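SEQUENCE-TO-STRUCTURE ENTRY
===========================

Backbone structure tokens: a row of integers, each naming the local backbone shape at its residue.

Task: work out the structure tokens from the sequence, keeping to the layout shown below.
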Amino acid sequence: MTPIAGGAALSLAFGFSVLTVVSLILYTRSGDQRLFWVGQRLSLAISFFVFMATFILTYQLMISNFDIDYVARYTSLETPTMYKISALWAGQSGSLLFWLFILSIFATITVIQNQNKHHGLMPWVIITLAVTQMFFLVLTNFVTNPFMPTDADFVVANGNGLNPLLQNVTMAIHPPTLYLGYVGFSVPFAFAFSALMNKDTSSLWIQSIRRWTLVAWLFLSMGIILGGWWAYQELGWGGYWAWDPVENASFMPWLTATAFVHSIIIQEKKDMLRVWNMVLIILTFTLCIFGTFLTRSGVMSSVHSFTASSLGPIFLSFVFVIMIVSFGLMYLRKDDLRSPRKMESFTSRESGFLFNNMVFVVMCFAVFWGTLFPVFSEAVRGTKITVGPPFFNQINIPIGLILLALTGIGPLLAWRKTSKESLIRNFTFPIMGGLIGAAIFLFLGYKGYVVISFSLCVFVTATILTEFARGVKARTNKFNESIVLALGRMVSKNRSRYGGYIVHLGIVLMFVGFTGHAFDKEKEFSLMVGESDHVAGYEFELTNMSEAERANHYAWISELRVTDHLGQFVTHLKPEKRVYFHKNPDVNRRQPHSELDIYSTMNKDIYSIFSAVDNENGIAFIKIMVNPLVRWVWIGGYILVFGTMIAMWPRKDS
């Protein structure tokens, strides 16, 4: 396999994407079934050549073929094999090819999965996916080709190597997971667009993409959580979410997608919210493309983003085309999208879902405005205003607490209308639990949003437990089953509902972790061997400082002995100060990096960073953070994934 073959494969894929669109459009005009089969097979050929190009580039990365510019920029002879593979999505052109690769996998599965069904929807589904592939093929063929030869008049003996921040196991997993979420929403969007083109606004397209939506939402959620884990473990600032523009780029489609996941339930069950569902899936897909634009245009400054390039206007044009065509088509189909049923009561589950959706969209707009405001400000006034975490926290914490409350309120409401008696019966135990929790937290000295957040967590947990207890009690009374057997069969027969409740429980635990941020403590100090300092009731003694030369970096290693306020030993921490590419004669090419060390418990994390070293005087500059309840964020993430997998599982009739 050669780079020339990779470039040829991309060119052939582009040609087949054009032929696919042309043949299927001709089919929609003529009805000639032969054109449909030709278009279907041509679409599979697009994916085949994309697969070939991706495998060729991966192979060139692994063998360190520095004749390819991309390989020379993002790998070196010293780069471990795992990170040579992950270099595929480390740079601009490679990440676009990887985006296209995942889209081609999903397109192939969609075509094969539906080759004998949904004949009315599939032509425009394939056209939509092929047009999206065509867009990325234009970029990888004509704008930023990953197979471009190295522009040098000498033999390149070694490459630049991968950014040290990316040489992390989590970072090798996080981008593919996030991409699976981003790209996954292409399929639901394709079915929605096809439904609009065919004037088929029934729930058929919803039923066709329900599991696709959950899969994409799961991967997007996992990608965001893994990104937070990577930031916490690798960046050394002590947090997992900084409202960074690129973090926001993944969070915005997650918000609209979460609203969509809830909203499709209403259309499936009640044939309502047709317009909402169309709007939400269009926004979600558009925001996925927009997020890709943010990371690759250079318009936003971020630790995650790529350098400035000519891709920005092209991506932005594609975003506007998607929105104009999709919403224009929605306007033309406005009569078909009218739901035959209306909301009957404010105190109904349908209205609860609708209000929930509105809050998600409001939060999405708040994040969007805060993210793009600096760009708008610079364009209009010529001065760039920084919008940091305080703005986002001030706006989104109250909205987040409203969403947390709705997580507990929604399941307690009945379909169509909830009677006064049902409201009293269903809400008594959860509200009492929340109020008792609030009283306890106030007694312990907590204030403000901390009390509200913890109390709402108690309220939502009580709601979830009530729903499970009610279902188990009904089965034990009806079938005389044991509690464990009743619980298992109840979840098995209604996986969507109870899987959703488990997801909600995971989100509650994540909120517990988020709220712990209010109690963070930190301190920076310098130590010589034998000296100590105190932070948040812990003593940190520098017992040793050593040096080590490793395969791709040089490290100074500090050893900290940690004891509590009683003088009892807690743990040893060994944060490092590293210099990557330390042998490079060009001092500017050497990359310093702090490899932190964390002692984690259920209650709190002790987070240590070796900020700098004065080698002549033997002084280590240390930063310590004590972060309460962080582990609950990750535990909540595990439970969220587990609940989503249950909800995704094929349903059984009760």
In short: Strands lie at 521-528, 532-535, 538-549, 553-563, 569-573, 576-580, 591-595, 597-600, 604-614, 619-628. The CA atoms of residues 278 and 483 lie 41 Å apart.
